[in-house]
Description:
By secondary structure, this protein is of the alpha+beta class. The chain has 15 helices and 17 strands. It has a five-stranded antiparallel sheet with strand order 2-1-5-4-3. Strands 7-6-10-9-8 form a five-stranded antiparallel sheet. Strand 16 and strand 17 (568-576) form a beta hairpin.
Amino acid sequence: MLxxxxxxxxxxxxxxxxRLKEEVRxxxxxxxxxxxxxxxxxxxxxxxxxxxxxxxxATRITVIDHDGVVLADSNEDHLLMDNHATRSEVVPALAxxxxxxxxxxxxxxxxxxxxxxxxxxxxxxxxxVLRLAIxxxxxxxxxxxxxxxxxxxxxxxxxxxxxxxxxxxxRISRPLEEMKRGAEQLTxxxxxxxxxxxxxxxxxxxxxxxxxxxxxxxxxxxRIRIIIQQRNELEAVFSSMADSVVAIDADKNIIRMNxxxxxxxxxPSEVVKGKAVQGVIRNAYLLEMIDCTLIHNTQxxxxxxxxxxxxxxxxxxxxxxxxxxxxxxxxxxxxxxDLTKLNRLEHIRQDFVAxxxxxxxxxxxxIKGYVETLLDxxxxxxxNARRFLEIVVRQANRLDAIVDDLLTLSRIEDxxxxxxxxxxxxxxxxxxxxxxxxCALQADEKNITVQIECDKEILAAINxxxxxxxxxxxxxxxxxxxxxxxxxxxxxAGSKTMRGEELVHLSVADNGPGIAKEHxxxxxxxxxRCDKARSRDQGGTGLxxxxxxxxxxxxxxxxxxxxxxxxxxxxxxxxxxxxK
Length: 580
């Protein structure tokens, strides 16, 4: 618009100036004969003609002789005017050509267009100059008006162009903004608020781009959901692993630990994340395995013993290199399998096999020895034969008791695993009284007083035969190990937990020799005896407390023991008051 305005203004001005030049020249040619004629006489008629004609034609007329002296002028007194021989329009006219000049008149104080033509002056016989001048102010005013109009039109066009450009820009930028917002949502992982770009009112190219971005976003969304699902699955597997797992980066900083590892080292996973492994794992063998795997990029395996206080923890440890997508080493995965319980169970199994073999072998050996003695001739001795046969019967009864207890224990375990044990809510007091009646003869033989402290209104979810057998076993042990003329107390009391659960506690307290502290953790194992010689003298099978433990577990309860050597022991069974 600026270029068009400039071209229009300059072209129009040049055109108008040329037209004015032609017009002034034609006016000069029209009055030239008259000027030539009047120049023969006096100056007064010439001056009057020039003044009158100039006023009527609104044109300044000046007559100049060959010396540049003004002979007549329509607007000013020619006698007071300067010599015009050097004026730019007069010089060509004195040379016989038409001269033009566009300048500001010093006399009139406005811009004038001068045109000078050569004429013959009769008075002097020399060539003179007839000069006409018209003001160019109207032309300049017209050009300025034209410029203002073009400026207004330009502003209007620019405004319309700006509005149209804004419309086009918004039409282009709006989908781009939607695409940007959708991309930002994807970068932030907000797949639940995915922006779908509408391709309506778009250009063909923009609609194709929007469609491609929508398709890309859907694919990314689908892949992100798959990744999240896989991550959650791996997280569930990682958290639920029984083995302790620690991920370590190449700088030997902990990336993360699962719950088993945090429990092993007694540290929360949020605290250890990003910490140096030397500050968390202080075992030299584990640190050496980690360093070896980082340096040689190979797997390592070793059995290591840690100590939780004074208790040893046996770990089967493995270190495996962690690799990135380019199969380059980026750290170590430390896996620790706790073998403590397994070794403990293995020791229990070995002790059980040894104990049961010993428990069975002792009566079998006795039976075999006395039978062989009878067969070798002792059968003829009536007194010895009878005594030997009584010993055989007693050992056979012992074997029968062991087999019965084993069968009872096996039956309780099977019924507990298959949920075949029926529990009903009933009073606990009658169970204690029935157990006391069963063991009354044994207590009377040692003059032991058994006292029951129980509220008959206490109820619990019980299987009466099984619970009675458990109480009988505890009471039998208490009578067997209590001294003559002592007291045994059967108690039953209720309590509530912090969560409002009602519990029932059954306890058997005696004044016997008590049990050493080191025997208490294994007291409920099968065939475990604190004093094997004394236990056999009491006639037990070694399975009574194991049966009590399994009966308590079948009732969703627990069994505990408290004992002070020399003062006695208290065995307690805790049962829920309601059926679960």
